[in-house]
Specification:
alpha/beta, Rossmann fold, 3 domains, 6-stranded mixed β-sheet, elongated
């Protein structure tokens, strides 16, 4: 069973096509690596899966559903409300001066109380004289414009990181992104935000739900830190950790989301051989917990040592996919990494 299905995914930035019609299936509870030269589109692929970039074309299905914000009844109600407010606003703007004269100026008598009870009738009479030009046309134009604009904004936010996180997709980044002035424990607790039920007022008023979830979150955070072997660094500032431990902390924060799919963007970058071996074991342990891993990595010993399958990108296109042995001996992969001249020389 595939937990992630990417179908003909294309991502363009103006005239630049970063990912071009890439299809990739990721089976549940496997480790799948995406490799390729720098600029091949690997991180853009990750960004599309996690909602950072909206796909130009193609579909991304996670656990059988598209990774985008669903259209609900509340969405339709909000869009309709925006359209209605925009329609009334345009009616008012288009008639502001004559409407003021008909409703206010006509009924005002100097130094006397204004007869507010006459204003509804005066407004109705004003619009009744020419209902099409004064009311119906601006109402329709404003309503359609407001509804279309609101829908366009909503559609642009259908793919968002919080949507992916709530669905069960977590990631790390090529460049470590931690809250350096916060403790190790607090960094992991922040990763649990999408899984908490309490709201602002629970914390502000110190309601029972706040205390209960706070205690449960700290217990889960400590369990994750023990799993990644950082439980001795709980109260250290993130910036004081070694490079390898900062990588582990970023993985711990991603695990705090309780993901079913974990995307790791070059987790072995900058690691020495011993740290890389420890990372391989950690990734295997994560898979043993039932989490599927999708990995971007240039460290070939790591890729070949832990991957069930490997997909290769070059210039935004998938050029190969298969087991580590199949990919290692693929001519197009060798050419993409080493160049055609090297391949010809090796053949000679």
């Amino acid at each position: 069973m595939n937990i992630l299905e990417i179908s003909d995914l294309t991502v363009r930035f103006g005239g630049l096509t970063a990912v071009n019609a890439v299809s990739l299936d990721v089976p549940a509870e496997e480790i799948v690596s995406v490799i390729g030269p720098n600029g091949a589109g690997k991180t853009t692929l990750f960004n599309a899966v996690t909602g950072v970039h909206e796909p130009t074309a193609g579909r991304i299905h996670f656990d059988g559903r598209e990774t985008r914000r669903p259209f609900r009844a509340t969405t339709a109600l909000a869009l309709a409300l925006v359209g209605f407010v925009a329609a009334l606003s345009l009616v008012l703007i288009a008639n502001i001066e004559p409407l003021w004269d008909a409703v206010i100026t006509t009924n005002y008598v100097y130094q006397q109380a204004f007869p507010w009870q006459k204003t509804p009738g005066a407004a109705v009479s004003y619009f009744a004289e020419e209902p099409g030009r004064r009311f119906l046309i601006p109402f329709l134009i404003g309503g359609i414009t407001g509804l279309a604009g609101a829908y366009a904004i909503w559609a642009r936010t259908r793919y968002a990181p919080e949507v992916a996180a709530r669905a069960g997709i977590a990631r790390t980044f090529q460049n470590i992104r931690l809250f350096n002035q916060m403790t190790v424990l607090d960094n992991v607790l922040l990763g649990m935000d999408s899984r908490l039920h309490m709201r602002f007022w629970h914390a502000a008023l110190r309601l029972p739900l706040y205390w209960r979830e706070r205690q449960e979150a700290e217990q889960r955070a400590m369990e994750i830190l023990r799993f990644v072997r950082l439980d001795q660094e709980t109260h250290q500032l993130a910036e004081n950790l070694s490079y390898g431990h900062q990588r582990r902390l970023e993985i711990a924060r991603a695990l705090a989301i309780q993901p079913r799919l974990l995307l790791l963007d070059e987790p072995a970058a900058g690691m020495n051989p011993a740290e890389a071996q420890e990372l391989m074991k950690l990734i295997h342990d994560i898979r043993q917990r039932g989490v599927t891993v999708l990995l971007i990595e240039h460290h070939m010993l790591v890729v070949m040592g832990i991957s069930d399958r490997i997909a290769v990108l070059d210039h935004g296109e998938k050029i190969a996919e298969g087991t580590p042995a199949e990919v290692r001996n693929n001519a197009r992969v060798i050419e993409a990494y080493l160049g055609k001249d090297h391949e010809d020389a090796a053949a000679t």
